What does this fold into?
Amino acid sequence: MNTANLQLEGLYVALSALMTALRQSGAVSEADLDAALADAEDSVTADRGRADLNPAHLDAIAFPIRYLCLPNKLGAEGSYPGFAELTERVGREKPQQAEVQSLQRRDIVASKDADVQRLEEIDRSAGRP
It folds into this structure.
């Protein structure tokens, strides 16, 4: 296994432990953490500057955020699964957000193309070059 992957695994576990400590101390609520993580996921999946990325790449970017959502939710319920179980659940439960964003981009492009064609047809019917 790539050493960087192991380092990232450690980082995810450490971040989820910090989130648990913050939640248990009352410094931050589960809802506040969920909201912050949801905002983070929305910002990376909706980033127009990443239009060149395919859905799989967007899922890869969103993976750490989705991973951290699970221990926050499950920890609030008193459950603390290990890294392997959490990553499996992220894969099974991941929203198809990246695919939705990709489809929306294609719809926008198709809509612009249709508008351009309609305007060109109006120009032709009006005798304009």
